[in-house]
Design the sequence.
């Protein structure tokens, strides 16, 4: 890989034709420099996008109605079911760190994606079997009117093994497939670098298009009690995704894994601590640069930046280390290249931005839990046709598709033209888009809270089965779903681009995993918040804000609470975004600074 990084252009002669290799250090399956015309680009990118669509179809075929499966089949109450879904979804995304670590350190992205997809398919098949053989008893149970009977310990055990295999498989695969898709485009090539930026928007679009089928067709069958059919369809879709992914093996470009990053981080911290009394030099050239063939960070060397000056001591060459260098006795626990120090600094700078995205993920996760329960308690019929509450997330998907188009074709060109008049050459930065996403998230929670106020106004308090007990039509939920979809485009697509661009070369999968881990912690925080709110709001005479019978609660107050928390988070985010400094590489230095980020 370093051979391609050091050469601006590598040309071979084959049958009298010039064959150009990629400039970003990617290799083919055999470990040789990747040939530009024979690998990667949109041929590989489209296969990965289709793979993502099918895998997402399978995931949401389980996830979108999981809260209803828990209440109707396993007979959990609303609060417990919402918490269970939040914990499960959180586990899905926390597993992304496992996949990212194995990918960046040892296996590489292709092997990691393949292995975790096999686990994913196995989990889906096991879930379908467990449901069909053990849980859906009597036959036809699990719809709105027929609850299932008691379940055996084996049936429940197989169910939880299956769903957490799905969590491990999908979670470990997801951050790597996004980064692997971006790897198919050479950012050192003008045309391909533009395609690489576009890939993340299309990646999120295909992910949502994949879930569209789940949220409409599969959701309808599952809502009618045909859970086994829905789960088998999900398993088949995931298996097709795996075959499609393996079918592109010869075309893919690869980055080699860079070794365990934890050891590199520990070396910098230990070396800096040992030199706590050493003064840092004033110029960058006085720091230890490493050997010419040193590749401790697994990619391009990073330039020195100001900030976290304590860590710079790890790259200060003392007289003792100068003698050791002459004897070719280099100890990485005493002296680290400045590029390795900058890798640690880079991650530390990303963390405040990442922490500010967690509250947004708390808002986002309501779409899969409380939005569904709220919709299920509204009028869901048009003539004789009943609309499944979970299928309302279709409007989220349509919003995502529409806003991606408007952002890429209208908003971003307009902003670019406006900024060009001021001497700037880019549209909205990733950090600016993420800030816009937080603003729209506040609007989504306010909209959901207002709808809930009106739902309660037209609800019946003395119902036994409160599904559809309010005369307020479920289509009043459309604005809150549309706002969530619009905020996703700005927040999650912005996150994918930001963390991929700003993560060190040897930690690109970790960068994508940060985005998913934000969703994970958002689910856990949501679960904790629901528990705390129920504990505080429930009294002897009041069942709390989110009781089993929503008509006796105050779900609107919970939504308004989330709107307030998101506003506070927005203020903190703006401060962190203004503080953040971009990563700088030796081969390609940023030509602009994000002085006015949000």
Sequence:
């Amino acid at each position: 890989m370093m051979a391609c990084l050091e050469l601006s252009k590598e040309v071979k002669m084959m049958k009298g034709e010039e064959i150009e290799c990629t400039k970003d250090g990617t290799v083919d399956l055999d470990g040789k420099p990747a040939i530009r015309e024979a690998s990667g680009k949109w041929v590989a990118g489209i296969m990965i996008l289709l793979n993502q669509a099918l895998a997402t179809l399978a995931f949401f075929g389980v996830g979108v109605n999981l809260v209803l499966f828990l209440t109707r089949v396993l007979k959990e109450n609303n609060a417990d079911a919402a918490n269970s879904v939040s914990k499960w979804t959180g586990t899905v995304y926390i597993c992304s760190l496992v996949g990212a670590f194995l990918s960046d350190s040892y296996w590489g992205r292709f092997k990691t994606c393949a292995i975790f997809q096999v686990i994913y398919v196995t989990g889906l098949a096991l879930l379908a079997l467990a449901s069909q053989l053990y849980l859906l008893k009597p036959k036809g149970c699990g719809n709105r009117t027929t609850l299932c009977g008691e379940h055996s310990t084996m049936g429940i055990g197989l169910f939880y093994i299956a769903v957490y295999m799905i969590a491990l498989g999908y979670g470990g695969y997801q951050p790597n497939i996004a980064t692997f898709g971006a790897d198919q485009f050479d950012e050192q090539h003008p045309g391909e670098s533009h395609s690489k930026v576009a890939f993340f928007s299309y990646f999120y679009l295909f992910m949502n298009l994949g879930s569209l089928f789940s949220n409409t067709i599969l959701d309808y069958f599952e809502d009618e009690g045909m859970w086994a059919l829905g789960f088998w369809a999900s398993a088949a879709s995931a298996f097709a995704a795996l075959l499609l992914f393996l079918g592109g093996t010869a075309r893919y470009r690869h980055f080699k894994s860079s070794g365990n990053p934890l050891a590199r981080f520990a070396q910098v911290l230990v070396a800096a601590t040992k030199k706590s009394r050493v003064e840092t030099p004033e110029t960058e050239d006085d720091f230890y640069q490493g050997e010419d063939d040193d590749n401790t960070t697994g990619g391009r060397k990073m330039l020195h930046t100001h900030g976290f000056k304590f860590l710079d001591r790890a790259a200060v060459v003392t007289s003792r280390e100068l003698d050791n260098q002459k004897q070719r006795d280099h100890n990485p626990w005493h002296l680290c290249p400045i590029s390795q120090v900058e890798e640690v600094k880079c991650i530390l700078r990303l963390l405040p931005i990442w922490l500010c995205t967690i509250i947004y993920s708390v808002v986002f996760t309501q779409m899969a839990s409380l939005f569904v329960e709220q919709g299920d308690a509204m009028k869901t019929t048009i003539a004789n046709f009943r609309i499944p509450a979970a299928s309302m997330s279709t409007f989220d998907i349509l919003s995502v598709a529409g806003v991606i188009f408007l952002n890429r074709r209208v908003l971003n060109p307009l902003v670019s033209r406006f900024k060009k008049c001021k001497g700037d050459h880019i549209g909205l930065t990733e950090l600016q888009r993420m800030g816009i996403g937080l603003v729209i998230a506040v609007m989504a929670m306010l909209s959901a809270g207002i709808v809930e106020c009106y739902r309660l106004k037209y609800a019946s308090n003395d119902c036994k089965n409160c599904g559809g007990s309010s005369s307020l039509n479920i289509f009043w939920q459309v604005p809150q779903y549309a706002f969530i979809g619009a905020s996703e485009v700005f927040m999650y697509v912005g996150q994918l681009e930001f963390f991929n661009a700003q993560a060190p070369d040897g930690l690109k999968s970790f960068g994508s995993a940060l985005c998913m881990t934000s969703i994970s912690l958002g689910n856990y925080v949501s679960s904790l918040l629901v528990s705390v709110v129920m504990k505080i709001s429930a009294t002897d005479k009041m069942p709390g804000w989110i009781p089993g019978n929503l008509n006796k609660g105050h779900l609107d107050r919970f939504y308004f609470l989330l709107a307030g928390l998101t506003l506070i988070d927005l203020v903190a985010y703006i401060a962190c975004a203004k503080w953040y400094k971009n990563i700088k590489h030796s081969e390609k230095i940023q030509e602009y600074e994000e002085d006015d980020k949000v």
Summary: Confidence is low (pLDDT under 50) at residues 1-16, 588-598. The beta strands are 11-14, 17-20, 381-382, 385-386.
